[in-house]
UniProtKB/TrEMBL annotation:
Domain Metallo-beta-lactamase: 14-174
Protein name (record): MBL fold metallo-hydrolase
Organism per entry: Halorubellus litoreus
SUPFAM superfamilies given in the database record: Metallo-hydrolase/oxidoreductase
Enzyme Commission no: 3.-.-.-
InterPro entries in the record: MBL_Glyoxalase_II, Metallo-B-lactamas, RibonucZ/Hydroxyglut_hydro
GO MF assignments: hydrolase activity; metal ion binding
Lineage of origin: Archaea, Methanobacteriati, Methanobacteriota, Stenosarchaea group, Halobacteria
Length: 204
C-alpha cells in the first residue's frame, strides 16, 4: 500500500488529499486543488472510491472533477449529491490493502469521520500533527458557527478508545504526515484541546 499526497503542489488553500493504492485504489478527501485529477493520473488510471472525512469546502471543492474523471463510489457521513454510500460510526471500509474502522468524530464539523486501521490513521481535521498553532499534536478549530470544542474533545477521546496500539502512520487533513507513536500525538492534541484556550490568538 502506497500513499501519495496529490495536493502537495497546490498553491491555493486546500486540505491534504491522499491517493492510496493497493487492493482498493482510494482517495481520502478530494481537496480544493484544481490540478488534483492530473495529480492522481500521474499514479493511477482509475480511482475505485472516494472517502470524505467531512464536507468543508477545502475537502470537497474538487469532488465534481474527481467524479467526472473517475466515476468512483463516494462514501460520506452526510448527504451529498455524489454520495453513493452512507458512512456510520462502526462501519468498516477498505482503503488500499487494509480495512479501516469508521469513527464518528464531530466538533470541527458535524459530519466528521476518521478512519483507523491496525497501522494507519486518516484523521481529517479532528487531530493533526502540525499546523499554524501547534507542532506535534494539534486539533481542528472550533470557533466558527456550528463548531464545538466540547464535542471535539469528546470525539478525540472516542477516537483514542478505538485506537489500536499498533498505529504508526498518521495522515491528517492539514500539516505534514507523521510516522511513529501516533497515539502520543493524539493524546497531546487532546491535552491541548482540554485546556479550552483559544487555538488562535484572534479567536473570540
Amino acid at each position: 500500500m502506497t500513499v501519495h499526497t496529490v495536493t502537495a503542489d497546490a498553491e491555493t488553500f486546500t486540505c491534504n488529499a491522499y491517493l492510496v493504492t493497493g487492493d482498493v485504489t482510494a482517495l481520502v478527501d478530494a481537496g480544493a486543488y484544481d490540478g488534483v485529477v492530473d495529480a492522481v493520473r500521474e499514479h493511477v488510471d482509475d480511482v475505485d472510491v472516494v472517502y470524505l472525512t467531512h464536507q468543508h469546502g477545502d475537502h470537497v471543492a474538487q469532488l465534481d472533477a474527481v467524479v467526472d474523471a473517475f466515476d468512483p463510489d463516494v462514501y460520506a457521513y452526510a448527504e451529498h449529491e455524489h454520495r453513493t454510500h452512507a458512512l456510520e460510526d462502526g462501519d468498516t471500509v477498505a482503503i488500499g490493502d487494509e480495512d479501516f474502522d469508521v469513527v464518528y468524530t464531530p466538533g470541527h464539523a458535524s459530519d466528521h469521520v476518521s478512519f483507523v486501521s491496525e497501522t494507519t490513521l486518516y484523521s481529517g481535521d479532528v487531530v493533526v500533527h502540525d499546523d499554524g498553532a501547534f507542532d506535534y499534536g494539534s486539533f481542528g478549530r472550533t470557533d466558527y458557527a456550528g463548531q464545538s470544542r466540547e464535542r471535539l474533545i469528546e470525539s478525540i477521546r472516542h477516537l483514542l478508545d478505538r485506537f489500536p496500539e499498533t498505529v504508526e502512520h498518521m495522515y491528517a487533513g492539514h500539516g505534514s504526515e507523521f510516522h511513529g507513536d501516533v497515539r502520543d500525538v493524539v493524546e497531546t492534541a487532546l491535552a491541548r484541546a482540554e485546556k479550552r484556550e483559544p487555538k488562535y490568538p484572534d479567536e473570540a
